[in-house]
Amino acid sequence: MRSRGNVIRRDEALALFPAHVIDDAIHAGAIVIAHPCVYRLPEADDLDTRRRAALAYRPDGALSHTDALDVWGLPTIHSARVHVTVGPDSPQSCFGIRLHRRVRYRPEPPAAVTRSGFRVVRIEQAIAESWSMLSRLDRRAPAILAIRERRTTPSRLLQVLDEQPWIRGSGEQRRLITLLAAGTHSELEMWGHQKVFTNKALPASSIQHRVQVGNSYVLLDRAFLAEMVAVELDGAAYHGTPGQRERDLRRDAALAKLGWLTVRYSHPRLYADPGGVVEELAGILDRRRSQLRETA
Fold first, then answer.
1. Shared-domain flag, residues 216 and 167
2. Do both 62 and 170 map to the same domain?
3. Per-residue pLDDT for 166 more than 70?
4. Chain-centre distance for alpha carbon 110
5. How confident is the model at residue 242 (pLDDT cuts 50, 70, 90)?
6. How many domains is the chain built from?
7. Looking at residues 181-201, what average pLDDT do you find?
8. Confidence at residue 267, expressed as pLDDT on a 0 to 100 scale
9. Which of 92, 98, 139, 102 is nearest to 122 (CA)?
10. Are residues 152 and 101 in the same domain?
């Protein structure tokens, strides 16, 4: 059983031992019933073992929803029951397993794949279906991270929503995916796009504009191309340490050699004073246009 991840089905055990040996082991507490005809070692009650037991009980299923997010390495929560997706005609859930019936589901690619030893729904399916299970503060993170790390694309996420329009929160998800498709890569950038950079007082700007610096490229959070003004949004997670700050200064200096003026706004400033940021940035852009005309 240890070589099998602490889990074994009764039919697998019967291929090795007589039925009375298995029943005696259950009675003695040497093995524990995880689900009907599925056993685990008594000391193995960790999450991975519970997931293997659930899949052993439902060999036609795949880990899904928040369990699938975890297997894919995306931010999630853990619930008391293991989430498993099965076909539409499957029987009711059993203790410890939450079954989700899905039309046109099959326990094989492309609907399900094997990752880290688990059969799991594809990453786009996990992101879309887990939306309503996560808090409002956390539900956008899986999609943002998956797209930023190029593990999926906005079009693939939209395809899931097109195929399953009944998924809860599909409207909110579409709005998020639209922002991600436009090039925003973080919550801070999305806030800036919605509350600051689309303000009519500002000229049009480009998102994640690519600039060649030496032999490499950098991406500007926002770029006002006519004025050659780069706006960088400094989230605490990426710009808070001394080493990161030094990296930012070197990058700003390299851009300045190419004629770019870099303006940085912190997370607290952008959220607390979007109107002030718009007014200040409009003034910077106006002054920058005057300077460019004077040097033309």
1. no
2. yes
3. yes
4. 19
5. low
6. 3
7. 83
8. 81
9. 102
10. yes
pLDDT exceeds 80 at position 62: yes
What would the pLDDT profile of 266-293 be if each residue is shown by its tens digit?
A: 888 888 899 999 999 999 999 999 998 8
- Residue 196: CATH number of its domain: 3.40.960.10
pLDDT digits (tens, 9 = 90+) for 99-123: 999 988 999 999 999 999 999 999 9
Owning domain of residue 287: 187-295
Are residues 13 and 116 part of one domain? no
- Residue carrying the six token digits 């200096």: 253
* Helix axis angle, 154-163 to 170-181, nearest 10°: 160
- Domain membership of residue 168 (yes or no) is yes
Q: Are residues 6 and 86 in the same domain?
A: no
Q: Is residue 48 part of a domain?
A: no
| Contact (Cβ atoms closer than 8 angstroms) between residue 252 and residue 231 | no
Provide the pLDDT for residue 239: 42
How far, in whole angstroms, is CA 71 from its chain's centroid? 12
Residue 191 domain-assigned?
yes
Domain-located, residue 282: yes
